[in-house]
Amino acid sequence: MEMIRQFRGVLGHLLLTILMVGICAGAWGQTTSGVINGEVVDSQGAAIVGANITLMEQLTGVTQVTQTDAKGLFVFPVVKPGTYTVSVEKDGFKKLDKKGMVLLAAGHLSAGTLALPVGSVSAAVTVTADVTPVQTTSTERSTEITSEQMQGLMSLGRDFSSLMRILPGSDYEGNGNAMLNSASVGDFNGVSNNYVSINTDGVASNTRNVGVVEGPLNMDAIQEVKVLDANYQAEYGKVAGAIVDVVSKSGTRNFHGSLAYYFRNEDLNANSYFNNRNGVARSRYRYNTINGTIGGPIFGPGRLRSLRDKLFFFFSEDYEPNSQPEGIGYYTLPTSLERQGDFSQSYQPNGSLYVVTDPETGLQFPGNVIPQNRINTVMQKLQSIFPLPNFTNTAVSKRQYNFVTSDSASEPANQQILRLDFDPSVKWRIYFRGTNLTDNDTGRATPGGNGAYWMTGTEFYDTQAPSFALNITYAPTSNIVNELALGTGLWFESSGLSAASLNEFSKTAQGISLGQLYPQNNPLNLIPGLSYGVIPSSPGIGWDPRTPMDDVVVMASVSDGLSWVHREHTMKFGIYADDAVYKQSHHSGNASFAGALTFTGANPNNPYNTGYAFAEPLLGYFDTYQESSARPNYYGQANSFEWYAQDNWRATRKLTLEYGLRFTLDIPQGLKGNEGAALVLSQYDASQAPPMYRPVEGTNPATGKPGRVAEDPTTGKIYPAAYIGDFVPNIGNPASGSVAASSPNFPGFFKSQGVLVVPRVGFAYDVFGNGKMAIRGGFGMFNNQRAYQGQVGGQAFNPPTIFYPTQYYGNVATFLQAQGLLSPSSTSLLQYNSHLPQTMNMTLGVQQDIGFQTVLDIAYVGVLSRHLPYGINLNEVPYGAEFLPQNQDPTTTQSAAGPNPGLACTSTLASPHNGLLPGCTPLPDNFFRPRPGYGSINYTAWGNTGSNHALQVQLNKHFSKGSQFGVAYTWSKSLSYNASTLYLPQRTTYGVTSMDRPQRLVANWLADLPKVRGSINNWATRSILNGWQISGITTFSVGAPQTVSYSTNTGENTTGGGDGAKVTVVGNPKVARGSRTFYRYFNTAAFAYTPVGSAGTGWHPEFYGPGINDWDMSLIKNIPIENKVTFQIRAETYNTFNHTQFSSVNTSAQFDTSGSASTNPTYHQQINPAFGNYTGARTPRLMQLAARITF
User: Where is the TonB-dependent transporter Oar-like beta-barrel domain (predicted)?
Assistant: First the structure.
């Protein structure tokens, strides 16, 4: 009856939780709170019942209380990360204080067995907790980066992501970003980082649902990072991979702060291997970081003074006033004479004159000058937007350019972090954390720009990543605790032109009266995109499809967990919900929202050919004009709703069992606003595909010359050859089967699987009952969303939402009245009836305290991945289809090398044959695809599988007695299907994945150097020789798997379609380490020509690339000043010994297919001279200097 009564109370709190979630829908969180438990006995080992347990956070003095149960057990089920003291009191026994218990994020910390000696409560006994405890009461695989590591180890950009490399199972490489910005955390245990959840104080930091943290906290504001990488409890979910929990620093009872400056400059660095090899000086490399933090209590006079022990704050400011060179640009721009139509001084690189012809007569303009009355003034103004040439020394330029420019981009970054902790009573604990990171780039070559580096103005690219977290913990009784976590993570991305540049490219400001077909798509009235052919170093304009960019990502969610301690059971029930959107406003899919003009000048098929690309627009002519028909919002949405129940059962003093279930409601991802479409294959009708212009021999009506032309198969009418492959207009349906998302017939992108249930089970066995050795293991299943919101957002560009009609060989005076042609559209398709991606984790390991505050951890970690995504083109033509006679271009005939010289390639006499007959060219694939009317149908399905099996060994000592170190060794193998095939058996591609690193060893350390002693111990020697520390990270790793690419020097078609061809592997590509040279990293003779009709065998990686042998080290000097103020100087070196570490090799095999075996001695031989050579090296030694003051 007692249990039923308590369960009713728990049920009431759970119902209240559900109500709170309903009210807070649209907020966020998976909490970082952990658990502290223990056992209280007397000196004979008998359980002590009813002992009073007080848990105090040492830095703030905030307390929680409970009592031991009938078995002497106690649990604090919801405890925020920090350092704690456990105090035990019971009449007749001495008081026991156990200090220095460090609880990490999402951790389970055992206080062990606390034996109370007989005596008075006023007589206290104090013990110190193990610095590196063995995990005896939890079953998850987890690792952490402590606050000491965060302060002592190095990271170039001062973000935590680069420290992921010190963890077992991680494949992270490198030193992180050069400055604070979005950063990847890498893959774990062979599971893609797309399935990683990155949380900061419980709030999503990877707001785009991929493994990139958008607004990483600077390292001076981080208390710790915890990674749950396998077999974690049911309360953690949403993803099938690792969970990275970042915990921010909080204020304490005393004021603490810091001020730091970090400095990098190329003069501190070594030059790179290839720069030295090529005689190139070091690149400019300059970064500055200024960081400050302060934290402490918040209080005031009078009654407000009582807040000192209840209300705390922490604030961090990080400022990086950086700028970087954008390089040198070389362009050929219209000269002042050319802008007036005078091409008498316009020379080709070989010194000959560009002959400008009159399209009306076919003759050269007299004097190579276009008469003024023939110049189109609109296009003259358009072409005058370019600055005038500034480099006229042709002896240097070789007539390859006449304009030189360079610039530096301003790239400041700024971050503010504020955390408030409020503990009004023993029952209530609340904290809030707000963060904002901004990166502002201003220059002439910023992301999201128009590619016009020659411009006189500037453009900008800004990102902003604000987020907030709110955590409320309420303990109505000592054994029931409710924790609510909510918040929002956002990411904004914007770009555009400065005011001066906007005028520079505005048709209105420039007085350019050039209309367009869909003016509503160009509200800024920008000039069209421009592209010039033939001219060396030609200028151009290519607008970002989102101009002006205004992107936003929002992930808002809420979680609530109710913990109930009943006897030896610690049960937890909770729910989680989120809403994530990714909006890219007014996205045209390609760069033609303002129109896009191309000018070749020397296109023989263009009846308005002038012979020079800068002359063509002055007459008003163009080769092509394309304009997107719409600018839909790319607006993907992804929602999650999950709930769970779990139990941590102390079955015996030595054995802990954990088990639980996590429930997932499959909510299909979709498009918010329904601007998009999807191909529904059941509604596709091949008979609706419009006919296409076909190639025939005839007289070009535009030029009056015989040759290859396009024919309308419905009328027999002839058109220019450029029409070949385009749809005949006004016939059929160019998007058969494609259904708009706004249509009532739209089935959605995915079919819901309803409610899915996955188990989590595990055990931890304290072998000797003394907390020194534990055997731990478990099994868990983990679901993941199919598609992130951005992937669904891409469906906005499918037809019929948007088309890209193209006009050929027109005039700007009449193009608005002309009709553009459509060609078969490529479209994307998501598997409707697909499973959620899923992983299964299996772990078994042992942890042993080996003394010296050091714990050895050896474990097997296995991951089986199912229903992984893969992409395939459903409309790929079959193998050999391009060789069939009926698919040959009828305007081509067999050459003299063919069996029937001069015979039409479409003749049945040409069949059968294996490969293209000499002189023959197949029709474009769109003429004979399986589903006519479409180009590629890019299908994403969820059916791939993978596995990763690993032995992981860790040796860890947390900071104590002046030192800390960690060693992580991983021996693993990761397997999966490496390519998607429509025609070949999928098993052909099975092999190691790109994430596979068979062996990886990473060590990190932080140590105080010995202090002076004995006779030399005096003020001077102490000042100079004391206070030194060294720290470092050493990495040894096998390189990434390598796959050899395949090509021929003649572009020979060896497959005639299908999934393509790979190189043929005929031997062992590995070369012994001692036999490798710069020019021969692997055995190039192991790869051979793939004959026509074969697909080859190199469909998966065959060898591993160059590995890593890297030492990063820091030397730190701490200089104590009065009143606990310390001044620190440090020098950080990356690749300290400047060891050349090659990073890439040339894996591009090219085979000679020219001529024949009788005429060409290298026929079918590999001819790429760089094949097998080293092509890249990792960074040389870099150095960062820093000065820091703390108090």
Answer: 247-1184
Grouping H, G, I as helix, E, B as strand and the rest as coil, residue 987 is: helix
pLDDT band at 932 (very low <50, low <70, confident <90, very high): very high
Cα distances (Å, whole numbers) of residue 605 to 136, 722, 809: 79, 8, 9
End of a domain among 81, 104, 128? 128
Reading the block at residue 706, the tokens are 């015989």
pTM as predicted: 0.90
Question: What spatial distance separates the first Cα and last Cα of the chain, rounded to whole Å?
Answer: 56
Q: Residue 123 belongs to a domain with what CATH number?
A: 2.60.40.10
Q: Are residues 1072 and 1038 in the same domain?
A: yes
Provide the pairing of β-strand 540-541 with 311-320: unpaired
Does the pLDDT of residue 12 top 60, yes or no? no
Q: How many residues does the chain have?
A: 1191
Q: How far apart are CA 162 and CA 1062, in angstroms?
A: 35
Q: How many Å is the maximal CA-CA distance in the chain?
A: 117
Residue range of the domain that includes 930: 869-942
State the DSSP code for 604.
Answer: T
Q: What's the mean pLDDT in 93-106?
A: 89
φ, ψ at 1030 (rounded to 5°): -125, 150
699 inside domain: no
Q: pLDDT for 347-362, tens place per residue? A: 999 999 999 999 999 9
Closest-CA residue to 346 (of 602, 703, 598, 531) = 602
CA-CA distance, 694 to 718, in Å (whole number)? 10
How do beta strands 755-766 and 655-665 pair? antiparallel
Last residue of one domain, picked from the residues 254, 284, 303: 254
Q: What percent of the chain has pLDDT over 70?
A: 97
- In this structure, are strands 718-719 and 706-711 parallel, antiparallel, or unpaired? antiparallel
Burial group, residue 513, by CB count within 10 angstroms (0-12, 13-18, 19+):
exposed
pLDDT computed for residue 895 by the predictor:
85
Structure tokens at 1111: 């030492």
Residue 777: closest CA among 877, 710, 846 = 846
**Do 1152 and 1015 sit in the same domain of this protein?**
yes
For the chain, the helix, strand and coil percentages under 3-state DSSP, each to the nearest 5: 10, 45, 45
Closest by CA position to 799, among listed 874, 723, 737, 728 = 737
Helix locations, 449-605, DSSP H: 499-504, 507-510
Q: Which amino acid is at 381?
A: K
Report the C-alpha gap between 560 and 156 in whole angstroms. Answer: 37
Task: Give me the CATH number covering residue 147.
Answer: 2.170.130.10
Q: Which residues pair with 1114 in a beta bridge?
A: 1031, 1132
Sign of the Cα torsion 693, 699, 702, 703 reads positive
On whether residue 224 sits in a domain, the answer given is yes
Name residues whose C-beta falls within 8 Å of residue 366's C-beta, 6 or more positions apart in sequence.
none
Distances in whole angstroms, Cα of residue 1178 to Cα of each of 271, 800, 1108, 1181: 11, 46, 9, 10
Residues 985 and 1039 placed together within one structural domain of the fold: yes
Give long-range contacts, CB 8 A cutoff, 24+ apart: 602-606: 602/533, 602/534, 603/533, 605/700, 605/703, 605/720, 605/721, 605/722, 605/809, 606/702, 606/808, 606/809
Q: How does 302-332 read in b/e, with b if 16+ C-beta sit within 10 Å?
A: eeeeeebebbbbbbbbbbbebbbebeebbbb
Is the Cα dihedral 1054, 1055, 1061, 1063 positive or negative?
Answer: negative
Q: Is 200 exposed, middle or buried (0-12, 13-18, 19+ CB in 10 A)?
A: buried
Spatial distance between the Cα atoms of 508 and 525, rounded to a whole number of angstroms: 7
Residues 1090 and 1171 in one domain: yes
916, 1048: one domain: no
**What stretch of H or E contains 97?**
strand 95-103
| 464 located within any domain | no
